[in-house]
Amino acid sequence: MHSRRNALSGLFPKLTALSFLVLLTSTAYAADKINCDTAVHDTNQQLESNNNKPVNDEAGLVKLLRTLNKDDVLPVQYVTTEYAKKQGWSGNPQDSLWKVWVLNKKEIGGDSIQIPEQKSGEKWYSADLESVRGLRSAKRLIYSPQRQERYLTTNDNTSRIIIKACI
């Protein structure tokens, strides 16, 4: 029993130092990021100053960014175009997804896309923003699980603006 206590007492300073190092590293990592509320608001201001449409639902975009940061997957209300078509959606942007019962309250997201900033091995995806009654808007979040930066387009990907990495 006495030798076990000596072994544990020698281990305690090492664990404490390791815990401190992990805390310091995660704090430094978080310090590089800004609050998602601020990131979205700043991005919206940039859009407006460039005479582009802003995102009306900033809180919804913040929630989506935080979900992606935490889980690397879209929330359950998103379905791919392929899935929506298999369920009976025409694929025509003028047709509401919600006409198909199983797609009620769903949005298109998770479709793979190509962007100029893409590096070898990276995969990029898009997610609709601000769909209205199942009708797609021109606003999309463009994201990659391999990167913390996200892009926002409000004009069907004609131009993109970066959303800073956020927490």
UniProtKB/TrEMBL annotation:
Positions in coiled-coil regions: none
- Which GO molecular-function terms appear in the entry? hydrolase activity; RNA binding; RNA nuclease activity
Q: Which residues cross the membrane?
A: none
Residues spanning the signal sequence: 1-30
Top-level taxon of origin = Bacteria
Give the record's keywords alphabetically.
Hydrolase, Nuclease, Signal
Name the record gives this protein: Uncharacterized protein
Query: Which species is listed as the source?
Result: Rahnella sikkimica
